[in-house]
Amino acid sequence: MEGRAYLLRPDTPQEGRVREARPGETEDELSDPLRTHAREANLVMRPPRHTPNSLYSLQATEYAQEQGKFLEYHHAAYEAYWDHRADLGDPSVLADIGTSVGLDGAELRERVESGHYAQKVVDQYHEALGYNIRGIPTFVFDNLLFSGAQPYEVFQRVMDKALENRAAAEE
């Protein structure tokens, strides 16, 4: 599995911004339909109080991927953001998340703050826009593309179709 960067709300200032509560949200739950989707998937998704600029976080993810720890880092960052409301725009928070999954937190922080992966992130974002991808998550299996949080059955159907297409191509 490979993760690719997508700048979410690229107009967000570097320091992020305060996130206003949306209608129907409570202190600990998002509004529907996200609330229902999160419950059905047994996910914790507390409304964040802050919207970070995603460039640092995406650079940290590139570092984790380079080190062979993409999924571990991704899951830890997800939990930090949605369960603990951590600021993923703060390099020290990102370094702590990296350390928690066995990465060199100091090196991660240095790479993020220096912008080591910034151009790669921006290039991946523009590539996604070129494919008309306009949101996250987006999944690509062979030539099949779909977006949004989906139930397991959707992934199963897409994988079945991808395997069917591969088998037909081999004939």
Q: How many β strands by DSSP?
A: 4
Strand order of the largest sheet: 1-2
SSE string, helix = H, strand = E? EHEHHHHHEEH
Largest sheet geometry? 2 strands, antiparallel
Low-confidence parts: none
Oligomer status:
single chain
Radius of gyration: 17 Å
Dominant shape? globular
- As a percent range, the share of helical residues equals 40-55%
Provide the β-strand percentage band.
5-15%
The overall average pLDDT, rounded, is 91
Give the N-to-C terminal Cα separation: 27 Å
Could you say which structural class the secondary elements and strand pairing correspond to? mainly alpha
Report the total helices. 7
How would you characterize the overall build of this protein?
- The chain has helices at 34-40, 55-66, 70-82, 91-100, 105-114, 118-130, 152-170; strands spanning 17-18, 50-51, 138-141, 144-147.
- By secondary structure, it is mainly alpha-helical.
- The two termini are 27 Å apart.
- The mean pLDDT is 91.
Can you lay out the helices and strands and say which pair or pack?
Elements: E1 17-18, H1 34-40, E2 50-51, H2 55-66, H3 70-82, H4 91-100, H5 105-114, H6 118-130, E3 138-141, E4 144-147, H7 152-170
Antiparallel strand pairs: 1-2, 3-4
Helix pairs in contact: 2-3, 2-4, 2-5, 2-6, 3-4, 4-5
Give a quick rundown of the structure:
The chain is mostly helical. It is built from 7 helices and 4 strands; from the N terminus they run E-H-E-H-H-H-H-H-E-E-H. The longest helix has 19 residues.
